[in-house]
Structures are given as C-alpha cells and as structure tokens.
Design goal:
The chain has one helix at 35-41; strands spanning 4-12, 17-25, 32-34, 51-53, 60-71, 78-85, 92-94, 99-102, 111-116, 119-124. It is mostly beta strands.
C-alpha cells in the first residue's frame, strides 16, 4: 500500500528557515529539496552524487548539490542532508531513513513515526 503523507515543516539551513510543504515517502531512501527552496534557506554544497532515482524506480533527477537541513516536527529534532534538484513537484520529499512507517487496520489509522534514537513523534495521514 502506497502512503503519501504531507506535512508543513519549518526547515532550517545556513541562510535561514522556511515553512515548506513536505511529502513523507516510505519508498524514498534519501531526502530531496527543490532548488528554489534550497537557495532560500541554504548554501548549496558540492557532492559526488550526480543523480537520484525517485520511488517510482524510473524517474531520474540530476543532483545539483546538497544542503544540510534541520527540522523539528512535533518536538523531535531531525538533522540530515537534502539533495538539491532542479525540478520537483514537491518542495521537499523526506526519505524513509529519517522515519519509519507503521500500518494499523484501515487507511484512516496509518501513522508515521518520526525520530531517531529515543525521540519520536507521530505525523498523522489525512486520507
């Protein structure tokens, strides 16, 4: 079952902070951010990663660099890097290595648990 969960997150990097509409995608193993968003909040740094493949297994996107990002969804801090891509339908796609998916009976009770180590919070899907 594919689960797409959207949440407005305040994301911070070297230049500042911005509220973005983020997609939490259980199929993605990394986080990507659209270039226009990345340029507003951070300095794009070079990376050896040249291309990423989206969760559909077909769509390949050229990586322009990366930015370190920080966010605090529901009080649980998350620090990671986001690969910067030119064209992306979403402002930010949060990869699954930052969170885990737990299914319960029925689509209206799906929850995403976000966190690392001992801290976690729940982001609820709105179906």
């Amino acid at each position: 079952m594919e689960l797409r969960i959207y949440r407005v997150l305040r994301v911070r990097s070297s230049k500042g902070e911005l509220a973005v509409k983020a997609l939490f995608d259980a199929e993605m193993s990394f986080t990507v951010v659209r270039r226009d968003v990345a340029e507003k909040i951070g300095h794009i740094l070079p990376t050896d990663v040249r291309e990423v493949t989206l969760a559909d297994g077909k769509t390949k996107l050229k990586v322009l660099g990366y930015i370190p990002i920080s966010t605090v969804p529901e009080g649980s801090p998350i620090d990671d890097i986001a690969y910067v891509v030119e064209e992306l339908a979403e402002e930010l796609i949060v990869g699954s290595r930052l969170w885990s998916l737990r299914h319960q009976a029925g689509p209206s009770t799906n929850r995403v648990i976000v966190g690392r180590n001992y801290s976690s919070s729940e982001l609820y899907a709105h179906n």
